[in-house]
Amino acid sequence: MDPKGWRLKLNDGHSIPVLGFGTYAPEEVPKSKATEATELAIDAGFRHIDCAHLYNNEKEVGQAIRSKIEDGTVKREDIFYTSKLWVTFLQPQLVQPALERSLKNLQLDYVDLYIIHSPVALKPGEELLPKDEHGKLMFDTVDLCATWEAMEKCKDAGLTKSIGVSNFNRRQLEMILNKPGLKYKPVCNQVECHPYLTQRKLLDFCKSKDIVLVAYSALGTQRLKQWVDQSSPVLLEDPVLCAMAKKYQRTPALIALRYQLQRGVVVLAKSYNEKRIKENVQVFEFQLTSEDVKVLDDLNRNLRYFSAQISEVCEGELEQEVHSISDNHLHFSGPA
């Protein structure tokens, strides 16, 4: 199937391409690589580009999108661009200025989707991870319902076509859905999701509320030491996944991506490698049997790759994408 044509309808009438290109890269990767990789992704057929203020590369990603528009590869309306509101901007008065900053960096008039990156707020300011004199993260108290009202105003102002959330659990979603005077429901919830963390309960709840689940880390993780327990199993080396890849004559990565699509989940594929970028679009060229989908369901072990002690984070610079912060740990996804 043509990847440009496979979309899911959102609850606000817009639609989202089911395969997205993730643009995050560690700090040591030159920012110019984001431009190069995004151009390669668009040439390969990706039309959904996922980025964020946190990634510190929206200028470069925006440059790639504009370049592909200028050379006639795509029109602006062909591209579905997602940005994210970082957790230091959750105070209502900071929401629209944060989006306007992203738009200025991108040099675009609007984004297609703007989502709250995490439900847990940090102290407002320019620091991505503000810390006190003892090296402890400085949290903030925010009414997420008020934050959501500010998100709704961004949609009404035409700065974003759709609005959603990331790393929200069921309770946090219900808080928004049950808000008096709710104007727009979140169209999506982006969370860590893969065969070792299938998020079945959260997926079922989101489907019941007409909210699309978007999977990040669908292929596992880069396994950076400061974020990931090095003893955790490597998803793409799983014997069941590898056997299935051999059966379908595909890579384990393609099996993991295709699994999400057949569950009705929008899936993000992150790679700066040209060969793998092109390969990931092949997810539309085959189909898993329902029996094999069930086999992959059974791999679930509720394993979250992205979890690290705050003390470890505070010892170094931000080198990996932080999604959600709570209690005394960093969590990259709320409990389902």
From TrEMBL:
This is NADP-dependent oxidoreductase domain-containing protein. Substrate binds at residue 117. It comes from Equus asinus (Donkey). SUPFAM superfamilies: NAD(P)-linked oxidoreductase. One of its GO terms (molecular function) is oxidoreductase activity. Keywords: Lipid metabolism, NADP, Oxidoreductase, Steroid metabolism. InterPro entries: AKR (IPR020471), AKR1C (IPR044482), Aldo/ket_reductase_CS (IPR018170), NAD(P)_OxRdtase_dom_sf (IPR036812), NADP_OxRdtase_dom (IPR023210). Residues 19-300 form the NADP-dependent oxidoreductase domain. GO terms for biological process: steroid metabolic process. The active site is at residue 55. The record marks 84 as: Lowers pKa of active site Tyr. Belongs to the aldo/keto reductase family.
